[in-house]
Amino acid sequence: xxxxxxxxxxxxxxxxxxxxxxxxxxxxxxxxxxxxxxxxxxxxxxxxxxxxxxxxxxxxxxxxxxxxxxxxxxxxxxxxxxxxxxxxxxxxxxxxxxxxxxxxxxxxxxxxxxxxxxxxxxxxxxxxxxxxxxxxxxxxxxxxxxxxxxxxxxxxxxxxxxxxxxxxxxxxxxxxxxxxxxxxxxxxxxxxxxxxxxxxxxxx
Length: 204
Known about the structure:
Blueprint: E1 6-10, H1 16-22, H2 32-51, E2 60-67, E3 70-81, E4 89-98, H3 107-121, E5 127-129, H4 136-144, H5 158-203
Parallel strand pairs: 4-5
Antiparallel strand pairs: 1-2, 2-3, 3-4
Helix pairs in contact: 1-2
């Protein structure tokens, strides 16, 4: 049996530059140096967590997948809950990314296997991940691993949401004023009809 060329290891702070390239689209829209600084912080916290707990009790870990000795992909694993309201424990597999040159070589499967092992070590029954909604390949891959849709995450700049809310509030106010005017006209018409009917009855 041939030896697999894919291996997993824990990421270190030294991996921050290459992971900034891998995860560029998932990071803050800042320059590369700041992205590396962000990842250095993430990796430092993961290393601190690992050093202060046993293998089966740490709450976060960054795994790097290597293909024949080269960094091919990575995933951030974190113990969390299914939602802020549903406190069922789960392992979040955050951004399981693979460099384009190493796709379809078992790297993504190895990363998700690492997520499952991480969950199994902690007795956690659920693994959660996310895929770009427009990436059919990523979503098909997750579906093949029994990961079904749970929620659709929607994100927008705060200012954009505020603008839409303001526009919506203005439109609702305009609609409410128009409705009140319509009601006023209807009531006035009914009063006029009643007066006309009363006058006709008195004359009859």
